């Protein structure tokens, strides 16, 4: 029953493209080889104001772009090379990992510069199923699991060792306490997925394809998905960070089925029982259409689906050596030990 | 005339060396084998999962067995450092015939001294031990499989160790804008051989566990030649005027992983070295 529902949803992909000229390999298969910049300003989930409306006008789409440009321009000011150093002890702004001394700023952020347009219509979200373009309501057990996993992160870093005032683990006890992206084990925002989603930065993908394999390099953390064509899934004892992906051709569409996840799939809500079906189609010379459906009986009562386009990019993909440059992990832990040594109960 | 005789003699001596105990020979002739054509229908098909066998990853040069890469002095002879004693036979280095053509790496005197010093400090200095991407050519002959993806014109190599990957270009993009752990590779064909020209390599990677090293001027020219349906001859010319007195070569076969349904499984070693790298800064450090 579940499988039936899933395949029904997959068939109901919303994009309908006219048969355009697409690149083909020497053997006549659609040719995906190339680099893609998958960044888009269109959010994963639809802002509630749009309700069930999948589309927005060109005017509305322009507004989204203008707002991003404005935010970027404002951010550029913070990049003034002649600006003063933050005050000793930080400026008190602990938002977005800034750590009070200016961590992230506009320099890092590359969320794209266009709104998602499919078949000449602008989209309000990448998700189109459920109808409101938002993740289905999580099952109660999943909600409880998420609370447990992330509760200790909700406090951020207010500048003192608050965790000494509380029972239970803190987010600074050891390397394993940190997120998988802090640990350089996985990119954040489900950038490697599957499903592969656009995120704050480093949204490049490189695809190289042979007759029986399709390889997708995910820029962030140099993660590689190697999709075996006309193969079968590895034993369920074997679990992989991005799951075990097998693919086959349905006409000019590459259909990829992924199972065998670990307890920590790219989608932070999901579990090892996540099942993802993706459909890759070259829409024209330079645009790959990417569609996906995900389901996980431990997390959601229903599957969810989305789609967006990957424009080809002439730019190269550089090495993302995360672990080799991970000075942050040691600093985070040393910083926490320092705060603990300075902690005085009355500071509360 | 005398010069020519001398040259011929030298050539004879060299070729004799290569087929005897002085190390491996250069690549064998490929005249008698023509591989299946690859996706472009023109060049040989190198697609597959490959792996080197042997002890080159311990030490590229010919070496006898020893108790370990890094040893410490003890009154009755060298023993392994305390940190690895518990590994027993697993920490010992098996012997190897060497893969350096001609036998020895032609270091400058200074660079040779640095190699020896590296070897005495391998536990601290070998970055692959910390699960850093191992660089080129080392990634090729580490004891883990790697997969060559060959499209019509595009190539990709993904290695099991540290999930390392290569940026391989079919058209030369010009000098690498910045050094990287796995370098910038430009692919071309020379007959039946895939040639990867590798530059932009980070100076801190090693060539093996024995402290063999290079500088940021390293230039590696790799050659992959099919020798049969299930093995490639691998040859790498290594140039670095800051470290070696002349270019030198390594040469070894690579074998196809023949197991049915073989695939590269995850070996993200990052999580396995967290205790090594960060354990001392835990809230409650372990013993």
CATH class identity of the largest domain in chain B: Mainly Beta
Q: Give the class of chain A from helix and strand content and strand pairing.
A: alpha+beta
Q: What proportion of the residues of chain B is helical, as a percent range?
A: 10-25%
Give Rg of chain B in angstroms: 20 Å
Widest sheet of chain B: strand order?
3-2-1-9-8-7-6-5-4
Domain module tally of chain A: 1
Name the average pLDDT of chain A. Answer: 89
Instruction: State the helix count of chain B.
Output: 6
SSE map:
The complex is a heterodimer of chains A (348) and B (287).
Chain A (H helix, E strand, L loop, with lengths): L1 H10 L22 E4 L17 E2 L1 H21 L38 E2 L2 E3 L3 E3 L10 H11 L53 E6 L3 E6 L4 E7 L14 E7 L2 E7 L15 E10 L2 E9 L8 E8 L15 H16 L6
Parallel strand pairs in A: 8-9
Antiparallel strand pairs in A: 1-6, 2-4, 3-4, 5-13, 6-7, 7-8, 9-10, 10-11, 11-12, 12-13
Chain B lengths: L1 H18 L28 E5 L29 H4 L23 H12 L1 H4 L12 H4 L4 E5 L4 E5 L7 E3 L14 E7 L2 E7 L19 E10 L2 E9 L8 E9 L17 H5 L9
Parallel strand pairs in B: 4-5
Antiparallel strand pairs in B: 1-2, 1-9, 2-3, 5-6, 6-7, 7-8, 8-9
Would you write up a description of this structure?
- The complex is a heterodimer of chains A (348) and B (287).
- Chain A has 348 residues and is an alpha+beta fold.
- Chain A has one domain.
- Chain A is 17% helix and 21% strand.
- Chain A has four helices and 13 strands.
- In chain A, the strands form two sheets. Chain A has a ten-stranded mixed sheet, with helices on one face.
- Chain A is globular, with a radius of gyration of 22 Å.
- The relative contact order of chain A is 0.18.
- Chain B has two domains: 42-62 and 100-281, Calycin beta-barrel core domain (Lipocalin, Beta Barrel); 63-96, no CATH class.
- Helices cover 16% and strands 21% of the residues of chain B.
- Chain B has a nine-stranded mixed sheet with strand order 3-2-1-9-8-7-6-5-4.
- In chain B, strand 5 and strand 6 form a beta hairpin.
- Residues 1-23 of chain B have low confidence and may be disordered.
- At the A-B interface, strand 6, strand 7, strand 8 and helix 4 of A face strand 2, strand 3 and helix 6 of B.
